[in-house]
Design brief:
This protein has six helices and no strands. The chain is mostly helical. It has two domains: 69 residues; 48 residues, no CATH class. The longest helix is centred in the middle third of the chain and has 24 residues. It is flat, with a radius of gyration of 19 Å. The two termini are 23 Å apart.
Length: 125
């Protein structure tokens, strides 16, 4: 869907810009001896380039306004996912990878794409 392409391209452009800006703080090196900042620098440029191409490709066919792009997003789901991943990261060392990951996937399957607990836990359709 074009609207989702516009949103994801915008987000990935911002991530690429963030990576690019932090990579230039490290030594990029020379053509003969690359520094530790070269790969993040290149990755940031590529992320920005590809996301800009995706954005313009999706926007070319879109006749609506920018307000319509962000109009139907359920921000509570985004906040729920971010909080869930934060809790996952905090509990990972204390509880363990397998148990934390199991509950993370089950919660995300249950609440993001509404399914019963049975289907969420067993992963069935």
């Amino acid at each position: 869907m074009r609207k989702h392409d516009l949103i994801s391209a915008t987000i990935w452009f911002l991530v690429g810009l963030f990576v690019f800006l932090y990579a230039i703080q490290y030594d990029l090196g020379t053509a003969e001896l690359l520094g530790p900042g070269f790969m993040p620098f290149l990755s940031g440029i590529l992320m920005c380039s590809f996301s800009a191409l995706t954005f313009f490709e999706a926007y070319r066919d879109k006749s609506g306004k920018v307000k319509e792009i962000w109009g139907n997003i359920r921000f509570w789901k985004l906040i729920f996912v971010l909080l869930t991943i934060l809790i996952y990261a905090l509990l990972l060392e204390k509880v363990g990878f397998i148990l934390c990951t199991f509950f993370l996937i089950a919660l995300l399957l249950r609440f993001i794409d509404p399914q019963t607990w049975f289907k969420s836990i067993l992963g069935g359709d």
